[in-house]
Amino acid sequence: MPQSRFRRRFQTTRKKPQLRERIIIYRENRSGRPRKQIPRTVAPSSLTLLNLFCGFLAIVQIHEDNLLAACWLIIIAGLFDLFDGMVARMANATSEFGIELDSLADVISFGAAPAFLVYAFDLHTLGVVGMLVSALPALGGAIRLARFNTDASSEKSFFFSGLPIPAQALAIVAFILAFHDFNFGAHFEFGRKSVLVPLVVTLSLFMVSTIRFASIPKPTVSSIRAYPWLWIGFGVCFILILILQDIGIFLSIVLYLVTNLIYALVTLIRTLWAETEPETTL
């Protein structure tokens, strides 16, 4: 009996140093290895993929004839698209991969999904003409994104060259949300198509144009001082959305388009006036 107890004690006392030695050896080996860090691009890329996923879900909802649900999914995709750019700039994680991935997601969520949406909403009744008009948001959006990718370094910090594809998608979605129950037949001969077709064509032309449209800059003191009216406009749009909801979204988009077009027209007139003004001689 005493020998067996002694052996048990001896065995237990020998196991503890072995375990400690293994832990020490493991820690020493691990301390010399470089720790694996999560790439900074993971966060913005994840938001971009969520944008793409919402666009896919929107297409599924359109196929199942849930057009209003598809509209809200496109809006949610727009929020993810807004946040992924902010996160990428805050984390200094902008990259060529992120730009390409963002464009691929945008062409689905804000190009293909709105195109399918307007076709299912009313343009399917026009046959081949309806298909051609419905394809314009996807085609114009693809051209807009391709131009943005090739000229990404020359993009202005406060302005885009051409209407951004998310703004075009939001305009279509806002129109459907605000007027899906409105009786257009009492005011227009062709009903909703009388407004929807010109709206889709105009937005698509704006995307491929070179008209400057304001972006959402960083909320810094310098940007507020440089563009006070821009921030006032965004504030008015935010208040309209809070008060009027879906109609507020549509009115905000209309206000955004009108103010940018007025600014572009004033800039063009000033440029032409400066070119035609006779030079003063001393």
Question: Helix segment count?
Answer: 10
Mean pLDDT: 81
Say which CATH homologous superfamily is assigned.
Answer: CDP-alcohol phosphotransferase transmembrane (TM) domain
Outline the low-pLDDT stretches.
Answer: none
Helicity level: over 70%
End-to-end separation in angstroms reads 121 Å
Broad shape? globular
User: Structural class from helices and strands?
Assistant: mainly alpha
Write the layout of secondary structure elements.
Layout lengths: L1 H30 L10 H22 L3 H24 L5 H26 L6 H23 L8 E3 L3 H15 L13 H16 L3 E3 L6 H6 L1 H17 L1 H31 L6
Antiparallel strand pairs: 1-2
Helix pairs in contact: 2-3, 2-4, 3-4, 3-6, 4-5, 4-6, 5-7, 6-7, 6-10, 9-10
Structural notes for this entry:
The structure is a single chain. The chain has helices spanning 2-31, 42-63, 67-90, 96-121, 128-150, 165-179, 193-208, 221-226, 228-244, 246-276, and strands at residues 159-161, 212-214. The protein is mainly α and 282 residues long. The protein has one domain (42-267): Up-down Bundle (Four Helix Bundle (Hemerythrin (Met), subunit A)), CATH 1.20.120. The protein is globular. The relative contact order is 0.08.
